[in-house]
TrEMBL record:
Protein name: Transcriptional regulator, LysR family
Domain of life of the source: Bacteria
An example molecular function term from Gene Ontology annotations: DNA binding
Record domain HTH lysR-type: where: 9-66
Keywords annotated in UniProt: DNA-binding, Transcription, Transcription regulation
UniProt cross-references to Pfam families, sorted A to Z: HTH_1, LysR_substrate
Amino acid sequence: MSQIQLHKMDLNLLATFEALIEEGSVAAAADRLHLTPSAVSHALGRLRTQFDDPLLVRIGGKMQPTPKALLLADELSPVLRGLRRALEPQAPFDPATSDRVFRIALHTSPTFMAQMTTDILRAAPNVMIEWVRIKPSNQNDLADGLIDLLHVGGPAYLMDGIASIDLSPVTFFSFVRNGHPVTKEWSTENAAKYRYLQVAVEDTGGTPIEKEHRVLNRPRTLGGKVHDFSLIGSMLAATDLITTQPSFVMAEMWTRYDLQVLEPVAAPKDFPMRFAWSARNASDPGNNWLRDTVIAAYEDHQADINHKLGAVMIPLRN
Protein backbone atom coordinates (compact mmCIF):
# COMPACT_ATOMS: atom_id res chain seq x y z
CA MET A 1 0.00 0.00 0.00
CA SER A 2 1.31 3.44 -0.88
CA GLN A 3 1.84 5.97 1.88
CA ILE A 4 -1.15 8.17 2.72
CA GLN A 5 -0.75 11.72 1.40
CA LEU A 6 -2.12 13.75 4.30
CA HIS A 7 -2.12 16.99 2.34
CA LYS A 8 -4.57 15.37 -0.08
CA MET A 9 -6.87 14.03 2.63
CA ASP A 10 -10.33 15.57 2.86
CA LEU A 11 -11.19 16.04 6.55
CA ASN A 12 -14.86 15.62 5.70
CA LEU A 13 -14.06 12.02 4.81
CA LEU A 14 -12.75 11.40 8.32
CA ALA A 15 -15.94 12.81 9.84
CA THR A 16 -17.95 10.54 7.55
CA PHE A 17 -15.82 7.55 8.55
CA GLU A 18 -16.43 8.33 12.23
CA ALA A 19 -20.19 8.50 11.68
CA LEU A 20 -20.21 5.21 9.72
CA ILE A 21 -18.29 3.41 12.46
CA GLU A 22 -20.51 4.74 15.23
CA GLU A 23 -23.86 4.43 13.42
CA GLY A 24 -23.25 1.13 11.64
CA SER A 25 -25.12 2.02 8.45
CA VAL A 26 -24.98 4.38 5.52
CA ALA A 27 -28.53 5.60 6.12
CA ALA A 28 -27.96 6.38 9.82
CA ALA A 29 -24.63 8.11 9.08
CA ALA A 30 -26.30 10.18 6.36
CA ASP A 31 -29.05 11.24 8.76
CA ARG A 32 -26.47 12.26 11.40
CA LEU A 33 -24.41 14.24 8.92
CA HIS A 34 -27.44 15.77 7.18
CA LEU A 35 -26.32 14.26 3.87
CA THR A 36 -27.98 12.01 1.34
CA PRO A 37 -27.24 8.27 1.52
CA SER A 38 -25.70 8.46 -1.96
CA ALA A 39 -23.26 11.16 -0.78
CA VAL A 40 -22.20 8.98 2.18
CA SER A 41 -21.82 5.95 -0.10
CA HIS A 42 -19.65 8.00 -2.42
CA ALA A 43 -17.52 9.15 0.54
CA LEU A 44 -17.13 5.54 1.71
CA GLY A 45 -15.90 4.61 -1.74
CA ARG A 46 -13.26 7.32 -1.57
CA LEU A 47 -12.21 6.17 1.90
CA ARG A 48 -11.82 2.60 0.67
CA THR A 49 -9.61 3.81 -2.13
CA GLN A 50 -7.61 6.08 0.14
CA PHE A 51 -6.92 3.37 2.72
CA ASP A 52 -6.86 0.43 0.30
CA ASP A 53 -9.30 -1.48 2.51
CA PRO A 54 -13.06 -2.19 2.39
CA LEU A 55 -13.34 -0.68 5.90
CA LEU A 56 -17.02 -1.65 6.27
CA VAL A 57 -18.54 -4.85 4.91
CA ARG A 58 -22.13 -6.03 5.04
CA ILE A 59 -22.54 -9.06 7.30
CA GLY A 60 -25.97 -10.30 8.33
CA GLY A 61 -27.67 -7.18 7.05
CA LYS A 62 -25.39 -4.83 8.98
CA MET A 63 -22.18 -3.00 8.11
CA GLN A 64 -19.30 -4.41 10.12
CA PRO A 65 -15.85 -2.73 10.45
CA THR A 66 -12.77 -4.51 9.24
CA PRO A 67 -9.72 -4.84 11.52
CA LYS A 68 -8.17 -1.95 9.60
CA ALA A 69 -11.27 0.18 10.24
CA LEU A 70 -11.21 -0.62 13.97
CA LEU A 71 -7.56 0.39 14.17
CA LEU A 72 -8.28 3.61 12.31
CA ALA A 73 -11.23 4.37 14.56
CA ASP A 74 -9.12 3.97 17.71
CA GLU A 75 -6.43 6.28 16.37
CA LEU A 76 -8.69 8.88 14.78
CA SER A 77 -11.22 9.30 17.59
CA PRO A 78 -8.97 11.35 19.96
CA VAL A 79 -7.56 13.29 17.01
CA LEU A 80 -11.01 14.35 15.84
CA ARG A 81 -12.06 15.26 19.39
CA GLY A 82 -8.98 17.44 19.78
CA LEU A 83 -9.57 19.06 16.42
CA ARG A 84 -13.16 19.90 17.36
CA ARG A 85 -12.01 21.47 20.62
CA ALA A 86 -9.39 23.54 18.78
CA LEU A 87 -11.93 24.77 16.23
CA GLU A 88 -14.68 25.59 18.70
CA PRO A 89 -15.24 29.32 19.32
CA GLN A 90 -13.47 30.49 22.45
CA ALA A 91 -15.64 30.78 25.50
CA PRO A 92 -16.37 34.40 26.43
CA PHE A 93 -14.34 35.86 29.27
CA ASP A 94 -16.44 36.31 32.41
CA PRO A 95 -14.78 38.86 34.70
CA ALA A 96 -17.14 37.99 37.54
CA THR A 97 -15.88 34.40 37.79
CA SER A 98 -12.34 34.55 36.37
CA ASP A 99 -9.35 33.93 38.63
CA ARG A 100 -6.68 34.80 36.08
CA VAL A 101 -3.46 36.62 36.85
CA PHE A 102 -2.89 39.70 34.68
CA ARG A 103 0.56 41.29 34.51
CA ILE A 104 0.93 44.88 33.30
CA ALA A 105 4.28 46.62 32.77
CA LEU A 106 3.86 50.34 33.36
CA HIS A 107 5.98 53.27 34.51
CA THR A 108 5.18 54.01 38.14
CA SER A 109 1.98 56.04 38.31
CA PRO A 110 0.48 55.45 41.77
CA THR A 111 -2.81 57.25 41.20
CA PHE A 112 -3.56 55.49 37.94
CA MET A 113 -2.37 52.09 39.17
CA ALA A 114 -4.46 52.30 42.34
CA GLN A 115 -7.59 53.42 40.49
CA MET A 116 -7.07 50.82 37.77
CA THR A 117 -6.62 48.03 40.31
CA THR A 118 -9.79 49.15 42.08
CA ASP A 119 -11.80 49.24 38.85
CA ILE A 120 -10.54 45.84 37.68
CA LEU A 121 -11.20 44.14 41.01
CA ARG A 122 -14.66 45.67 41.17
CA ALA A 123 -15.51 44.02 37.85
CA ALA A 124 -13.38 40.89 38.35
CA PRO A 125 -13.07 40.30 42.12
CA ASN A 126 -11.12 37.06 41.84
CA VAL A 127 -8.41 38.09 39.39
CA MET A 128 -4.94 39.18 40.45
CA ILE A 129 -3.25 42.28 39.02
CA GLU A 130 0.54 42.37 39.06
CA TRP A 131 2.22 45.65 38.12
CA VAL A 132 5.60 44.93 36.56
CA ARG A 133 8.55 47.33 36.50
CA ILE A 134 9.60 48.76 33.14
CA LYS A 135 12.93 47.24 32.09
CA PRO A 136 14.82 46.41 28.88
CA SER A 137 13.59 42.79 28.82
CA ASN A 138 9.88 43.73 28.81
CA GLN A 139 9.38 43.03 25.11
CA ASN A 140 10.89 39.56 25.44
CA ASP A 141 8.68 38.89 28.43
CA LEU A 142 5.67 40.11 26.47
CA ALA A 143 6.45 37.84 23.52
CA ASP A 144 6.97 34.90 25.90
CA GLY A 145 3.64 35.46 27.62
CA LEU A 146 5.15 36.48 30.97
CA ILE A 147 3.32 39.80 30.88
CA ASP A 148 0.00 40.67 29.24
CA LEU A 149 0.25 44.38 28.54
CA LEU A 150 3.20 46.74 28.14
CA HIS A 151 3.16 50.54 28.31
CA VAL A 152 5.95 51.69 26.03
CA GLY A 153 7.07 55.09 24.76
CA GLY A 154 9.27 56.40 22.03
CA PRO A 155 9.67 55.20 18.43
CA ALA A 156 7.86 51.97 17.60
CA TYR A 157 10.82 49.60 17.77
CA LEU A 158 8.74 46.56 18.62
CA MET A 159 9.80 42.96 18.17
CA ASP A 160 8.14 40.67 15.67
CA GLY A 161 5.05 39.06 17.14
CA ILE A 162 4.07 42.10 19.20
CA ALA A 163 0.93 44.10 18.43
CA SER A 164 0.24 47.59 19.71
CA ILE A 165 -2.14 50.53 19.70
CA ASP A 166 -1.05 54.17 19.61
CA LEU A 167 -2.16 56.41 22.45
CA SER A 168 -2.42 60.17 22.65
CA PRO A 169 1.09 61.70 22.68
CA VAL A 170 2.62 62.31 26.08
CA THR A 171 2.33 65.80 27.55
CA PHE A 172 5.29 66.95 29.65
CA PHE A 173 5.34 69.50 32.47
CA SER A 174 8.12 70.77 34.69
CA PHE A 175 7.87 70.74 38.49
CA VAL A 176 9.57 72.47 41.41
CA ARG A 177 8.92 72.79 45.13
CA ASN A 178 6.37 75.35 46.25
CA GLY A 179 8.10 78.71 46.72
CA HIS A 180 11.04 77.87 44.49
CA PRO A 181 12.79 81.15 43.49
CA VAL A 182 12.45 80.37 39.80
CA THR A 183 8.65 80.63 39.97
CA LYS A 184 8.87 84.39 40.45
CA GLU A 185 10.09 84.75 36.89
CA TRP A 186 10.04 81.50 34.95
CA SER A 187 12.25 81.98 31.89
CA THR A 188 14.87 80.04 29.96
CA GLU A 189 17.55 82.27 31.43
CA ASN A 190 16.51 81.71 35.05
CA ALA A 191 15.89 78.00 34.47
CA ALA A 192 19.51 77.59 33.37
CA LYS A 193 20.66 78.71 36.84
CA TYR A 194 19.24 75.58 38.48
CA ARG A 195 20.01 71.93 38.14
CA TYR A 196 17.64 69.17 37.12
CA LEU A 197 16.45 65.90 38.61
CA GLN A 198 16.32 62.96 36.20
CA VAL A 199 14.56 59.64 36.50
CA ALA A 200 16.96 57.00 35.22
CA VAL A 201 14.48 54.19 34.59
CA GLU A 202 16.90 52.33 32.31
CA ASP A 203 20.11 53.03 30.50
CA THR A 204 18.84 54.22 27.13
CA GLY A 205 21.72 56.50 26.25
CA GLY A 206 19.80 59.71 26.87
CA THR A 207 16.24 60.72 27.73
CA PRO A 208 13.88 62.49 25.31
CA ILE A 209 14.09 65.55 27.57
CA GLU A 210 17.87 65.73 27.20
CA LYS A 211 17.60 65.35 23.45
CA GLU A 212 15.09 68.20 23.23
CA HIS A 213 17.35 70.46 25.29
CA ARG A 214 20.17 69.79 22.84
CA VAL A 215 17.96 70.43 19.81
CA LEU A 216 16.79 73.78 21.23
CA ASN A 217 20.30 74.66 22.47
CA ARG A 218 19.01 75.09 25.99
CA PRO A 219 21.53 73.11 28.01
CA ARG A 220 20.58 71.75 31.40
CA THR A 221 22.78 70.45 34.21
CA LEU A 222 21.80 67.40 36.21
CA GLY A 223 21.90 67.64 39.96
CA GLY A 224 20.43 64.27 40.82
CA LYS A 225 19.06 61.00 39.55
CA VAL A 226 16.50 58.63 41.00
CA HIS A 227 15.59 55.17 39.77
CA ASP A 228 11.80 55.48 40.05
CA PHE A 229 9.15 58.12 39.39
CA SER A 230 7.68 57.63 42.88
CA LEU A 231 10.78 59.31 44.38
CA ILE A 232 10.36 62.59 42.51
CA GLY A 233 8.05 64.36 44.93
CA SER A 234 10.07 63.99 48.10
CA MET A 235 13.28 64.85 46.24
CA LEU A 236 11.87 68.07 44.78
CA ALA A 237 10.27 69.12 48.07
CA ALA A 238 13.68 69.00 49.79
CA THR A 239 15.78 70.71 47.10
CA ASP A 240 15.86 73.44 44.47
CA LEU A 241 16.05 70.88 41.66
CA ILE A 242 13.76 71.12 38.64
CA THR A 243 12.34 68.13 36.83
CA THR A 244 10.40 67.64 33.60
CA GLN A 245 8.16 64.58 33.51
CA PRO A 246 5.19 63.01 31.70
CA SER A 247 1.93 64.19 33.18
CA PHE A 248 0.52 60.75 33.88
CA VAL A 249 3.23 59.86 36.43
CA MET A 250 2.73 63.09 38.40
CA ALA A 251 -1.01 62.89 39.12
CA GLU A 252 -0.49 62.19 42.80
CA MET A 253 2.84 63.80 43.59
CA TRP A 254 2.21 67.37 42.49
CA THR A 255 -0.61 67.69 45.02
CA ARG A 256 0.84 65.45 47.73
CA TYR A 257 4.10 67.41 47.83
CA ASP A 258 2.54 70.77 46.95
CA LEU A 259 4.67 71.15 43.83
CA GLN A 260 4.37 74.03 41.41
CA VAL A 261 3.82 73.30 37.73
CA LEU A 262 5.83 75.00 35.00
CA GLU A 263 5.75 75.06 31.23
CA PRO A 264 8.87 73.09 30.20
CA VAL A 265 11.91 74.87 28.86
CA ALA A 266 12.34 71.92 26.51
CA ALA A 267 10.20 68.83 26.03
CA PRO A 268 8.94 66.71 23.14
CA LYS A 269 5.64 67.91 21.72
CA ASP A 270 4.56 64.68 20.05
CA PHE A 271 6.30 61.98 22.07
CA PRO A 272 4.59 58.71 21.04
CA MET A 273 3.13 56.29 23.56
CA ARG A 274 1.44 52.95 23.08
CA PHE A 275 0.21 49.83 24.78
CA ALA A 276 1.61 46.59 23.36
CA TRP A 277 0.73 42.91 23.72
CA SER A 278 1.72 39.56 22.25
CA ALA A 279 0.13 39.02 18.84
CA ARG A 280 -0.65 35.44 19.79
CA ASN A 281 -3.02 36.78 22.47
CA ALA A 282 -4.72 39.20 20.10
CA SER A 283 -7.97 37.22 20.08
CA ASP A 284 -7.87 35.92 23.65
CA PRO A 285 -11.10 37.09 25.34
CA GLY A 286 -9.41 37.77 28.69
CA ASN A 287 -6.64 39.81 27.13
CA ASN A 288 -9.14 41.70 25.01
CA TRP A 289 -11.09 42.60 28.14
CA LEU A 290 -7.93 43.70 29.94
CA ARG A 291 -6.76 45.86 27.02
CA ASP A 292 -10.15 47.52 26.58
CA THR A 293 -10.39 48.25 30.29
CA VAL A 294 -6.87 49.56 30.83
CA ILE A 295 -6.46 51.54 27.62
CA ALA A 296 -9.76 53.42 27.97
CA ALA A 297 -8.97 54.25 31.61
CA TYR A 298 -5.45 55.38 30.74
CA GLU A 299 -6.65 57.78 28.06
CA ASP A 300 -9.21 59.26 30.46
CA HIS A 301 -6.58 59.56 33.19
CA GLN A 302 -4.08 61.31 30.94
CA ALA A 303 -6.66 63.76 29.61
CA ASP A 304 -7.82 64.57 33.13
CA ILE A 305 -4.35 65.19 34.58
CA ASN A 306 -3.30 67.22 31.52
CA HIS A 307 -6.29 69.49 32.08
CA LYS A 308 -5.56 69.92 35.79
CA LEU A 309 -1.85 70.57 35.36
CA GLY A 310 -2.44 72.94 32.44
CA ALA A 311 -4.84 75.00 34.55
CA VAL A 312 -2.17 75.78 37.18
CA MET A 313 0.92 75.83 34.95
CA ILE A 314 3.18 78.88 35.09
CA PRO A 315 3.94 79.82 31.47
CA LEU A 316 7.50 80.18 30.24
CA ARG A 317 8.73 83.70 29.48
CA ASN A 318 11.55 83.78 26.94
